[in-house]
């Protein structure tokens, strides 16, 4: 099913490129370094109360379809949700060990400084804007869904329901509103300023300040400062971020990793196989980025640990064999001693009524043993 | 290549699994094995050979309770396994002193096997026999230890002081039953009044010489405690007296500890300590702040034991903590010893954790760490009016008298404003949009919060001005009966010039909800908007 759709889309893409869309391609190994005055949002999960007002504001601002359950209905929080084509942001509830109250975290596109989605998109449907937002132009999209594979946070989602013109959908950081000098919808409505809007640089300062002033309240990590090359959406938390479903993605941005696979791709139909391999490489890499970086850091330790473990195993095996042998030996000795004793007794008994000794020899204990 | 290696490792693992299951079978076949994976306090790990050198087999996991029960059935007592020397039962098995590795091994093997064999011959359910090595030397015993530390708290200590069954010849107090110091002339441990200390002051983790360079050793804390407690309990019980536990589980389990009788009103300990004293620096010429009058009596009542402040041994603070720091005090300077936020033995460190109490946390959890002000220094370093040279020449008695006088001056209740000076309600209507104004019952909130700390001398001592308490909410403002309104500082959110200062709406919500959470108030819930301000209908 998907494959057929994909192939039909391929045809469309070929057509589009033949018609001169090639100009819009950009991929050239260039990586975004973050705009100096880029804005961002800091989510402080120690402040978030899980009211879902931000979800509601997002729905209003972006004219999204009405969800099944009202935004007031907080039972929705009892199940973990993810963003999709109709929901650009969700708030999830996390119960962590040792805390009496749950913790809430809002999630949406993180607006990476060097967006993997943009680097994977060969028609350049994604744009990293100078205000920090990463936006998407549906007119250019060919529906290949590479961006979905590339995004380390699994953000872009596809309008599977739309049979005619399915598009990728995701949070825009309210780019149009920012341009008008307004706050993103979610930030504006948040009753607790669990969301703080400002220049990314300033937000980092604010986040560090909060950690310094309230050392017991926060873990000393700003998620998004370095993750995936840095994101414009930043997070503070009172528990390790991994407990709030924030995966370890490593520090290297996806474009840096994928430039080999996807850089300098000319927009011609003939390079499809290259792109396919590229996409595969991205998806594989995505899984590996964090692992590789971590692995690098612990490799030395692990190697020595492995050697130690092997040595220990060997020693244990040797010792076990020795112990077992010793135990067996003792059992055998005991059995032999018992047999000898029995034999002696029998012998004595046999010898007592002299003359019957010969017949007794037939029941020699050696045979029994 | 990798494959070959990992195959080998797998093979190794499989063999290991196979071997373990063979031993596992042996262990299970033993009748004495405990219920599977159950937890017991009466579990002793016998690794005496391992402590001396390398062992051939894993240490023995020994269930002491099973053995005491068995002995009871056989009408035998502790002496079946424990020898007595100088009227004191040794806690070691069948000996009073440890021998060589070979001797120890032989001692355990011969005595254990002999008894087990004897019981087996008599047809009794008994432990492993010779040859069933792994039943005792089991690296994965079926039972695990639920052993829990036990401490001598104030109540338990008092019960020992008051116990009629503890009598010391020629004394009218019980102290000498446990407390002793080494007397050089008498060459033995004797009780000296007012030198009583924590056991840890002398008994360390390992045995230490009684006198420097001498041969006689003081037992390690673990041994000393068991020797003193268990032997006394056993002998008192044998004599038919009312006494404490004699089994491991009697002291070292949660359930047992929960059942201890707790004496609520423990009379003050008598050890010659002052009611109050002046904490003065070792070098008064270099001391920059007035000496602090310390209310010793009040702190005794508030704490569970002397160790909270005095560490292992009782001495005045400045014996070890000087302005410059010295080895005895781990080079922790006097200033650090009194103010370190990280230590529970320091004044500020301990007071800081007290702020986590829900009745304090409402305000204090909102305050940034280390926000000490001049005012907070003065709460303790309030002027004594004595110059360094005067303090220097002061005898301890005078110091105590001065401290007594200063402490007596301290407030016993927190100063507050009169009711009519506390606004009854505050209408929060600056932001009315989707919600109606909120009528905050200001006075009720203030009075409830004050009532929650009414009994606290600490609150009384540190909230020195009637307006100090108001600063929990009206923060960053000078002390005043009419502090600025929230709007005075909080306005539009995210104004770069105002840094991280929240906008008005968030300021309200953060303050109210933050305090409610910290005080563990269930209602109103943070998401129950209409509980504070009705939703607008038009
Ligand atoms: S989070 Fe994903 S979708 Fe958003 S900018 Fe980064 S890579 Fe693109
Ligand atoms: S609006 Fe603010 S407090 Fe409410 S769920 Fe969203 S981020 Fe959390």
TrEMBL record, chain A:
It comes from Desulfovibrio psychrotolerans. InterPro entries: 4Fe4S_Fe-S-bd, 4Fe4S_Fe_S_CS, FDH_Electron_Transfer_Unit, HmcB. The chain crosses the membrane at residues 261-282. This is 4Fe-4S ferredoxin-type domain-containing protein. Residues 39-69, 132-161 form the 4Fe-4S ferredoxin-type domain. GO terms for molecular function: 4 iron, 4 sulfur cluster binding; metal ion binding. Residues 348-357 have a biased composition (Low complexity). The keyword NAD does not apply.
Automatic annotation (TrEMBL), chain B:
Its cofactor is heme c. The keyword Acyltransferase does not apply. Residues 281-381, 453-533 form the Class III cytochrome C domain. Keywords: Electron transport, Heme, Iron, Metal-binding, Signal, Transport. Residues 109-237 form the Outer membrane cytochrome MtrC/MtrF-like domain. The keyword Secreted does not apply. Binds 4 heme c groups covalently per monomer. GO terms for molecular function: electron transfer activity; heme binding; metal ion binding; oxidoreductase activity. InterPro entries: Cyt_c_III, Cyt_c_III_dom, Cyt_cc3, HmcA, Mtrc-MtrF-like_dom_II/IV, Multihaem_cyt_sf, Multiheme_Cytochr_ET. Heme c binds at residues 229, 232-233, 248, 251-252. Pfam families: Cytochrom_CIII (PF02085), Mtrc-MtrF_II-IV_dom (PF22113). NCBIfam families: CxxCH_16_HmcA. This is High-molecular-weight cytochrome c. The gene is hmcA.
